[in-house]
């Protein structure tokens, strides 16, 4: 009976050590879940500003700021995985404004929300 308990304890300890090693490797960028170089887990990642989904989110953001705004260009786009996805973009709208916008998207709840924006006139 004592040897069974010892064996069970040994299995639990080895499993815990293995799990801790896996978590440590992921944090250091090794193994599965490896982040790209210079990328922190949970950090912002650059995305192609010409991507169709990025363009649609930019137009959504511009329309939330003012229904008449039209996106002329997306200058920069980034994403961040959260309980959904945060999108951060620098956009030019209606040839008059440069806006920094953040959009939260959660596809499984059909949620898209402009969470912040700041616009300056284009000289």
Automatic annotation (TrEMBL):
Residues 23-43 are annotated as: Disordered. Residues 1-19 form the signal peptide. The keyword Phosphoprotein does not apply. One of its GO terms (molecular function) is cysteine-type endopeptidase inhibitor activity. SUPFAM superfamilies: Cystatin/monellin. Transmembrane segments: none annotated. This is Cystatin domain-containing protein. Gene3D superfamilies: 3.10.450.10. Keywords: Signal. Residues 39-120 form the Cystatin domain. The keyword Signal applies.
């Amino acid at each position: 009976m004592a040897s069974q308990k010892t064996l069970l304890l040994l299995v639990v300890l080895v499993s815990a050590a293995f799990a801790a090693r896996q978590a440590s490797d992921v944090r250091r960028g090794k193994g599965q879940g490896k982040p790209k170089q210079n990328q922190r887990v949970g950090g912002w990642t650059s995305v192609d500003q010409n991507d169709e989904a990025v363009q649609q989110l930019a137009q959504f953001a511009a329309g939330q700021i003012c229904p008449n705004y039209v996106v002329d260009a997306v200058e920069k786009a980034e994403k961040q995985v959260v309980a959904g996805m945060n999108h951060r973009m620098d956009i030019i709208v209606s040839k008059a404004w440069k806006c920094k916008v953040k959009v939260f998207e959660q596809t499984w709840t059909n949620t898209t929300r402009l969470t912040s924006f700041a616009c300056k006139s284009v000289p």
